[in-house]
C-alpha cells in the first residue's frame, strides 16, 4: 500500500489531496508500524571530506534527485567512486543493483556536471532504498547491472562551472550524494563540516525507522 509519505508528495488538486490524506490517515499504518524493512548502513563513496567548506550540510543541502538527505563529499579528480554498505544486523550481506545511469544536470550536457548513478540496496529479500552518486566521470556500470560490494561506479572529475556544478578549482571537486529509504526516511551520521571520513566508515542508514523527516540525523 502506498505510504502517507508518498501520498503527500503527489501534486494533485487540493480537494483530492485532502480526501487522499484523510483516507491515508485512517487506513495506513503509523510510522512505527511502517518501519518493517531491515536496516542497512551506507558507507562513503571514498575516503574524503564531508561538506568540506561548510556550505552544503546534510540537514539542509538541496536534494535535486528526491532523496531524504544529501551531502557533498570532496576528493581530488581521478578518485574511484565505490558503492559499499553492510546490514545493521551484521548478518548476511547487501546486494547492489544499478537502477539508473544518466547525465547529472538538467541541461543534459556532460560538461556541466558529468553523470549520476543510482544504486539500489537489497537485503533480506527487500529493496531497502537507494543512493545517488552525482558528478561522476568515466562511469563503469550500466542500468540493470548487479555489482559487487565495493564496485567502482566511476571517477571524480572537475567539470566546467555551471548552475549545476559550482566549482572553480580542483579543491572543490566532489560527489553529490543522496540517500532514500523505502521505509520511513533515511538518516545521516552527524559530523562537523570538513570532517575526514574513511571509506570503511558509515555516513547514513536506510531501512528501519531511523528518521521521520527529511534531512534528519540518525538517532
Main attributes of the structure:
3 helices; single chain; 219 residues; globular; 4-stranded antiparallel beta sheet
* Content of β-strand: 25-35%
Low-confidence stretches: 1-35
* Mean pLDDT across residues: 87
Q: Supply the helix-strand structural class.
A: mainly beta
Apparent shape: globular
Biggest sheet character: 10 strands, antiparallel
Succession of helices and strands: HHHEEEEEEEEEEEEEE
Q: What's the alpha carbon Rg, rounded to whole Å?
A: 18 Å
**Residue share in helix:** 10-25%
First and last CA, distance: 27 Å
Strand tally, please? 14
Work out the helix count: 3
Topology of this protein?
Blueprint: H1 4-7, H2 14-27, H3 31-34, E1 40-42, E2 48-50, E3 69-74, E4 80-82, E5 85-87, E6 95-103, E7 115-123, E8 126-137, E9 146-147, E10 152-156, E11 174-181, E12 187-188, E13 195-197, E14 204-206
Antiparallel strand pairs: 1-5, 1-14, 2-3, 2-13, 3-11, 4-10, 6-7, 6-9, 7-8, 8-10, 8-11, 12-14
Describe the structure.
- This protein has 219 residues and is mostly beta strands.
- The protein contains three helices and 14 strands.
- It has helices spanning 4-7, 14-27, 31-34, and strands at residues 40-42, 48-50, 69-74, 80-82, 85-87, 95-103, 115-123, 126-137, 146-147, 152-156, 174-181, 187-188, 195-197, 204-206.
- Strands 2, 3, 4, 6, 7, 8, 9, 10, 11 and 13 form a ten-stranded antiparallel β-sheet that branches. The chain has a four-stranded antiparallel β-sheet with strand order 5-1-14-12, with no helix packed on it.
- A hairpin with a 2-residue loop joins strand 7 (115-123) and strand 8.
- The protein is globular.
- 38% of the residues are buried.
- Mean pLDDT is 87; it is low at 1-35.
